[in-house]
Design goal:
This is DUF2029 domain-containing protein. The protein contains 23 helices and no strands.
């Protein structure tokens, strides 16, 4: 760490202890070029902090505006396509589960999720408990008068309002997680895939809880982090995976007490929500887990490409086992990477990698699953070029799945995207996700390439891990060259965590 990039140098430049806000237009060519639309980068004498329109407020307003544009994109379906044949909602790329499940999952008939049996093949609601509660609350707020079409429209609108609140929470949390980098929240706010998929399903609720959990961890509130992760896992399964890389990071830093508090909080948060339903309605409660296991190979996965290319259906149990094996291998690789990296990886980097690994190896990829990764990607690799490359692949997949469904629903007319075209859309999603994973891994192996650490920061979202010393490392990281060891010790002097080198 040079004297020009150390935190002390930043403080001395300002003459106080405040940390200056990083301006992405000074570091990112794409951000600088994009800022020309609003007058160009901030000038040398600008004082944005003195205006009521702070970076966090700008991020929130932009996020809400993009969410509203996503609602506008659903207008053809809201007006007629949801109710006048399945094919139209696919050709207009405006499909949503929400209005359909209002009647199909018993909310229109005031059935109690998990307790009351449903009509048809789905005996119970196939969503986690906290998401089921979210859906039920929305049904309470939906007017019960009028024909079914009007009620389904109102149910979608009520859910859209609740999901917009989740969007605001996500924007605030991402903008505040890296204290000096609030503008990175614009990556989330302006993500096209975020706007397009926000109201397909209820995933934003779990994403908001996860974003709040990461904010709590960045502030050193380990128990609050754990409780929120537990609640997020009660809404969607994926957030619990973040505990895996956190375990390895705490192992490397020797922060066992903090990880224990987080793990206990997660278990407690999950049990508080699940235990009552588990005890009173066990059959309804376990439907989500049995459905996930029994579900066959479905849209968006590379397993579907294999099945379609070979012309053979894949055995569900075999795919479950292979997907689990691939996920275990990916997690093992992330563990080795964490313990051998020349510098301890940032939490956001590893969280993104483990969720991306889960999505890539899973037997289904619904288009709204991209919402899981967008906040993590913004924190892990806040570079507009790489982010937009990945988003291009996700938008291609979003359009591809609806056009493919339109093709399958149009009979002999064959209007839409044929199977080979849909496979290309899946490949675009997979390859761009792998690309973003690759640049994150490169940042871990070459920390000087990590844009977040260019100013001398360690892990702004790391909480108790930020600036902590390593106590367990493997490989070359355990025996750095003498000049590297002295440089690292000198860096710790700047952070005020070690005595000066004699």
């Amino acid at each position: 760490m040079t004297s020009e990039t150390s935190p002390r140098a930043y403080r001395n430049r300002r003459g106080d202890s405040a940390e200056p806000v990083v301006r992405p237009t000074e570091q990112d060519e794409v951000a600088a070029a994009g800022s020309e639309l609003i007058g160009g980068p901030l000038g040398r004498w600008a004082r944005p902090g003195r205006h009521w329109l702070t970076p966090v407020r700008v991020v929130v307003l932009v996020a809400i505006g993009m969410f509203a544009l996503g609602m506008v994109q659903k207008v053809p379906c809201y007006d007629w396509a949801w109710f006048r044949g399945a094919n139209s909602q696919y050709t207009h790329a405006c499909y949503s589960d929400i209005p359909h499940l209002y009647s199909l999952r018993g909310f229109a008939d005031n059935l109690v999720p998990y307790f009351d049996r449903l009509n048809g093949d789905m005996n119970y609601l196939e969503y986690p408990v906290l998401t089921g509660l979210f859906m039920e609350v929305a049904s309470w707020l939906t007017p019960g008068s009028g024909d079914m079409q009007h009620r389904e429209q109102m149910y979608w609108m009520v859910n859209a309002g609740m999901l917009m609140a989740c969007t605001a929470v996500i924007a605030v949390c991402v903008a505040r997680t890296h204290r000096r980098r609030p503008w990175d929240g614009l990556l989330v706010a302006l993500a096209p895939a975020f706007a397009l998929t926000a109201t397909i399903n209820w995933d934003l609720f779990a994403v908001a809880l996860t974003a709040a959990a990461l904010l709590m961890w960045s502030r050193g509130r380990t128990l609050a982090f754990g409780i929120l992760i537990g609640l997020a896992t009660a809404a969607k399964l994926y957030p619990v995976l973040i505990l895996g890389p956190l375990l390895v990071l705490c192992w490397r830093a020797g922060k066992w007490r903090e990880f224990g508090a987080a793990a206990l909080g997660a278990a407690g948060g999950w049990l508080v929500v699940n235990l009552p339903v588990m005890m009173l309605a066990p059959e309804g409660w376990k439907k989500f887990y049995t459905f996930s296991q029994e579900r066959s190979v479905d849209f968006g996965s590379f397993w579907l490409i294999i099945s379609q290319r070979t012309g053979k259906g894949l055995d569900t149990d075999m795919v479950n086992a292979l997907a689990m094996l691939l996920m275990v291998l990916a997690c093992a690789g992330i563990t080795v990477l964490t313990l051998t990296a020349p510098r301890r990886p940032r939490l956001a980097q590893l969280a993104f990698l483990v969720i991306a690994a889960f999505i890539i190896t899973n037997k289904v990829y619904s288009p709204q699953y991209v919402l899981w990764m967008i906040p993590l990607a913004a924190l892990a690799r806040p570079r507009w070029r790489d982010f937009l490359i990945w988003q291009a692949g996700e938008v291609a997949y979003f359009l591809g799945i609806w056009l493919y469904l339109a093709y399958t629903m149009s009979g002999e007319k064959h209007q839409g995207l044929p199977t080979e075209g849909y496979q290309l859309a899946i490949a675009a999603h997979l390859l761009t996700t792998l690309y973003l994973c690759a640049v994150v891994v490169r940042d871990i192996l070459l920390p000087e390439r990590d844009v977040v650490r260019r100013d001398g920061s360690d892990d702004p979202s790391g909480g108790v891990l930020d600036r902590a010393e390593d106590v367990f490392v493997l490989g070359h990281a355990a025996h750095p060259p003498r000049h590297a060891a002295l440089l690292e010790q000198g860096s710790r002097v700047e952070w005020g965590t070690s005595t000066p080198v004699s």
